[in-house]
Design a protein that fits this description.
5-stranded antiparallel sheet; single chain; 50 strands; 670 residues; 4 helices; 5-stranded mixed sheet; mainly beta
Amino acid sequence: MFDLIQFPWVRRQARAAVAALAAVAVAGSPAVAAPAEAPAPVGAPSSLAAAPSFRIVADGLSLDAALRPIADHAGPLAEGDKLSVQLTFRDAATGQPLTGLTPAAWMDLIPPGADDGPDACRNKVQTFLSGSMLSAPAVDLNTFYVLALNADPSVNVVDPLFSFGGSKLLAKVLLPSPGEDWAVSKDGSRLFVSLPDSGALAVIDTKSWKIERGITTGGKPMRLTLQPDGRYLWITDGVAGTGVMALDTATLEVVARIATGGGRQQLVVREDDRYAFAVSDLSDRLTVIDIARLGAVAQVEIGPKPVSLGYSAVSRTVYVAEAERGEVVAVDAERMKVVTRMKAEPGLTRLAVSPDGRLGFVLNTGADVVHIFDTARNRILKTGDMKDAPDQIAFSDTLAYIRHQGSEEVLMISLGGVGAEGSPLSVVDFPGGQKPLGEVTRPASALGMAAAPGEPAMLVANAADGAIYYYKEGMAAPMGSFQNYGHEPRAVMVVDRSLNETAPGRFETTSQLPGAGKYDLAVFMSSPRVVECFRFEVAEKPELAAARRAALGAIVEFVEAPTRATVGETVTVRFRLTDAASGEARPERKDVRVLTFLSPGVWQQRTLARHVGDGVYETTFEPRQAGLYVLQPEAPSVGLAINRSSSWQVMVAAPAAGQDAGSANSSLGR
């Protein structure tokens, strides 16, 4: 299972980053104090402001951090608010933005008794980089979400960074009818899903994972293509005699309907957003659409049955797979003329161009064949025998992945090692599950494979297994899988929520504030080195607090608990269990346990707590190593789950020189 897999790019840096942390001391960095109008860094909580901002200047670099509510917000930040997290890096001397950086950030709830010493931020960041499930942050701002388009009318949203005690299923979006294809807006804030049975388009807010609007398009909306600048979403209509539609992504209105012929259609857009190109398997022509005029301006004869197309920005050429004659037709995207016809064999089914635009891949599902052509010379370089009906193509930065309907195998072809024309085609494979990938009750236009962001890895949806598999390049088999909670995943998509550079030197992502309390916005960067924590507060919303109390059977209140200790001494922590509704002490329970662990999870123990009267319980532990120890009570009989319980932290120091540490140097194993 994926509970232990470290996904985002920040995890790839973990080993080097943790080593670098040893040389980074927040307290010792030559930081310049924040200006008077900016809240200070960690050590002084910010006031409850609607948009707290911070500045730190150190080692020739200035960092501005800001938390900006997405909606109009008159009061302080409050739990459940959607916000934009912005980090801006500049040269401290010149003020010029620093680009191409790779920052990481987390929001961490500060529990009672938390260490607030000079090394607290460094220890916190080191814990997060280690990927421990036992001390995960409240919000990881370096992650991505995996989406499954199900055979039933729903979309599942899964967090691959499964935090301790939580659920991987973040949301289930219920649709009016099964989805066919999907696309994400340029800023990642909206997910569009075509609903052919409803003649509509669902617009989903990717922050709340709720349907923002349903748009009636008429016909049968099928394939979705977002043009590069994000202005228009192009929708193909599956009703005979119709064509394509253009949806303005700002107004969410259909602004054009252009006839391109009936039947199954596909569309691509030129990289400069000037022209779109559409084909239909019931028409023998390629329709050229002027995007500025939102109208057809030319038609190019292709052949009896054009079934698929792709575009290469390198050669400025549109490539069309024509099934009846078995040709790959190359059309100059400037002159709108056929420049060559590459002969294959009848029955071509799917065409795709690699991300770098250098190679094209064409499948023949019935003949079990793949053709690979060079876009610079417009020549077929290789023809390779496949097996079991190859039907889909997806790409990482280095590999082409080919899925098969009749088996669980996924074939991989190196984009850099196709080799000379006519030489044998080298392929490797891995199993994408247990059952054939084509066993699906309702096929979709959306792909069943998606590249993982920042990783040389691919996600593969297996509908028959009810799972999504994660394959990392270089492995013989998938590293794990996501169970899809009883649903049949027909397609898979990734929505990246990591920090992205939205302007020179500015890195931004969106998130939703968790529960009320004091938080650290922890920021880390390996080069140039940055380890900083900024303190802010989140206000409680009375209606949410009341709902939480109603859902809880008991509340934990720590009453006698040290915040510091020394290796070898016995540490005693007491806490009271009270009724969430009445506030009165809970009667004695026999199943009150406490999980105690050394962050980031290198040692742990679970012990029954001893009732000492008036709802108060006591637990003890003897630390054998210096570090941060976290205690979390649970009581299943009163509905107190460990992931919903309050926690307590104890910072344990090594004994002073000459002090008897007892078993301080012994092994942590028990």
